[in-house]
Structure formats: structure tokens, C-alpha cells
Model the fold of this input.
Amino acid sequence: MEYTQKIIDNHNLLLARYKSLIEQAYNFRQTDSALSDISEFKAIKLLHKINKLKYLNRDLSLALQN
Done:
């Protein structure tokens, strides 16, 4: 269970960072398109990590049920 909690905590941390980067990309959209693109790219990379953690957590949940 401790390992599952670490995954959830890491997921929440990455999700907060993702939301921050998306907001930053939106705010830079009108003033500096290059910074906006960089922030959006970083957010997409984080989203990929978040999806990996969701999948891993789902697999652990299924393994613990069996």
C-alpha cells in the first residue's frame, strides 16, 4: 500500500505542475509565442508521465485484488 500512495502523491504533484504549465502557456500565447510553445511542450511531456502513473496504479490495483 505504501508504494501505491507514493504513486498517487507523485501523480498529484505532476498534475499540479501540468496545470501550471498549461496556464503559463495560455498566458504567454499573446505576448511570446515561443515561450508558450515551450511551456506547452513541457506540459505534454508531463501529461505522458501522468498517464504512465495512472496505468501503473491501475495495474497495481488489479494485482492487489487478485
Observations:
- The helical segments are 2-28, 33-65.
- The chain has a mean pLDDT of 88.
- Residues 33-65 form the longest helix (33 residues).
- The CA atoms of residues 13 and 58 lie 18 Å apart.
